[in-house]
Write a structure and sequence with these properties.
The chain is mainly β. The protein is built from no helices and 28 strands. The strands form seven sheets. The chain has a five-stranded antiparallel β-sheet with strand order 1-3-28-27-26, with no helix packed on it. It has a five-stranded antiparallel β-sheet with strand order 2-25-24-23-22, with no helix packed on it. A four-stranded antiparallel β-sheet has the order 4-5-6-7, with no helix packed on it.
């Protein structure tokens, strides 16, 4: 049963800079494993996945979550473009899809050079329409791989998909800087976040490790308007654009991903096992 719960407070571990205390509210509970929160800035609502149950949910502030899509093929990461179209990583069908505002679903990617993708997981869409996604393989997904690597891909608005990076380790979360010039990718095995420079066509270069030694398994990444990175691991680490950690948010649940949302884009939406939380700072 999915129910909303009252608000409560969670303190932060303080680092070099104090960001304050976040007020947490449990938006809903009772799922199997939540993932892929994404905020639709055009229409002002949130989506998130319940991956094992093959469902994508929609949450409008002030109401309870409702099912947006059933039989969603093991949905993981979600993202929206500026037109309000929904992009989803489907782990069971091993593809990336786009759903228009009328509900029509289009397959954007399902293979690389004739071999099926592993299991698309994290996804982000730039303002110019470029789509970036990670393609790791976890658990039983590794047993049915056709590719001998884990990749990070770019789908440009026009032209064929390109491979940005290939690893023997597993890329996971993915995000963009506010100006769209830097791509961030977390790696679940290396416990780091890598950064890439992006040119005006969306091409990536200058790969480097931005954050190393992340506690826990790095997952989703969110970036706020000031360029601060919120990186899921053991809790949520908050980092400057230069990769310096200033805060660690302790959370008792296993966190999978996070996203910024609501009208002022100051709410941090967190998916954690069977729960979905909203965190807001107690000071501006």
């Amino acid at each position: 049963m999915i129910r909303r719960a009252p608000a409560f407070f969670f303190a932060l571990l303080l680092g070099a800079q104090q960001l304050g205390v976040f007020k947490f509210q449990q938006l809903a509970k009772g799922y199997r494993f939540t993932e892929g929160p994404a905020w639709n800035a055009k229409d002002q609502y949130l989506v998130f996945s319940d991956t094992p149950n093959d469902r994508i949910y929609k949450w409008v502030p002030g109401s309870d979550p409702v099912v947006l899509r059933e039989d969603a093929h093991g949905p993981a990461g979600n993202a929206f473009d500026t037109q309000g179209r929904l992009y989803t990583c489907e782990t069971r069908t091993r593809r990336v899809t786009r759903t228009d505002r009328n509900g029509k679903i289009e397959v954007l990617a399902d293979n690389w050079e004739g071999k099926r993708l592993n299991s698309p997981t994290g996804i982000v869409v730039a303002r110019n329409g470029s789509v970036y996604f990670t393609d790791p393989a976890f658990g039983s997904q590794s047993d049915r791989r056709e590719l001998d690597f884990h990749g990070v891909y770019h789908i440009p608005p026009k032209g064929p998909m390109t491979l940005i990076a290939k690893y023997q380790t597993r890329p996971h979360g993915i995000a963009l800087s506010p100006n769209g010039r830097t791509l961030y990718v977390s790696n679940a095995d290396e416990h780091n976040v890598r950064a890439f420079d992006l040119d005006r066509n969306g091409g990536a270069s200058n790969e480097r490790v931005l954050i190393a030694g992340i506690e826990g398994v790095p997952g989703g990444i969110a970036v706020d308007e000031k360029g601060m990175l919120y990186v899921v691991g053991s809790g949520i680490g908050i980092y400057t654009p230069e990769g310096k950690r200033v805060q660690l948010m302790e959370i008792s649940e296993r966190v999978s991903a996070c996203a910024l949302g609501e009208a002022d884009m100051k709410s941090l939406i967190i998916t954690a096992r069977g729960n979905v939380f909203r965190a807001r700072p107690d000071t501006p």
